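Contributing new records

If you add data, match the layout below exactly. Sequence lines come first and carry their own label; structure lines follow with theirs. Keep one chain per record. Anything else will be rejected by the validation script.
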Amino acid sequence: MSNDDHTPVTTHDSQVPVHHEADPIADPGLPPHTWRPTDVDPKAEKRAERQIAAMFIAAMISAVLFVVAYFSFEVGDNWDTFAGMGASTVSLGVTLGLSLLLIGVGIIHLARKLMADAEMVEMRHPAASPQEDRDATIQALNDGLDEAGIGRRPLVRNTMLGAVGVLGLPVVVLLRDLAPGDALDTSKLAHTIWEPQMRLVRDVTGTPILASEIEVGDLVNAAPEAMFPTEENGYPELEGAEEQAEKAKGAIIIVRMDPDEIIPTKGREKWTVDGIICYSKICTHVGCPISLYERTTHHVLCPCHQSTFDLADSAKVIFGPAARPLPQLPLAVDEEGYLVAQSDFDEPIGASYWEREKQ
């Protein structure tokens, strides 16, 4: 069905395409249109509306039940369930799956029973459509929305929007699992595993570091001794996410320079050991690990966004987007000559975050 300007045309009574002499093909002889029960029976139409709305409402209930199940069942709950799967797995899978299924089935029924049902033929046109054709397309889209009846079927429209909207609740809840356990507790960001008299060890081998073995110009990547627990040091063994979090927060770099070159911050005059100074390895911009050291200038560069810190001058920022100096770890030596921490960092390590001022 088309007229001379390629705009689809249908008859009001039969919805059978009408071809004009200008059409490039003849009428193929489509059969008369078969009306659906919902097209001719107002009761059937209303009944279909209620059925579709019921599906959307059930989808909303299922999404809410997903949230309830998420907080009600712990992972590992194993009361009798299908195929031996835990209560959390089954309840979350069933409720979320049912919500998605009901929304999909409801939309399919909306299209099959209530949206416009008419045959159309539209002639092909060049890829670069004239402006009048574009305007006609927009008009056709608007006409399609009108024919779908969403505007005059508030029950279907509102329940469908409600079902899709409530489906966002499980998405929001599942965002918690992007950080395991209580990792979203920002107070944990203010502290690391470092504690008084904890030895500094090499980050790969876990061997303690003698102050005497570090030469001027050296940069050593190191970690807390607690990350390498043994029977001798007595530190508990960490596992999984907790181990990874503490390892990331506790990473440090150790540098030795001429003591006269160090410009200490007030109150930190005794935080170094004969020119050996220690800072967090985590950039204060977005948390990348820093490692590129220029021994003649004592500058260290973050490879991610080129923030540059002067380790001789309290690791102050001299270039780049970082807004704070690297946190400094106070050092001492134990009776065997090994480097140890005097305490934890006195400020949060890593990138700034929204609750930093509250720590």
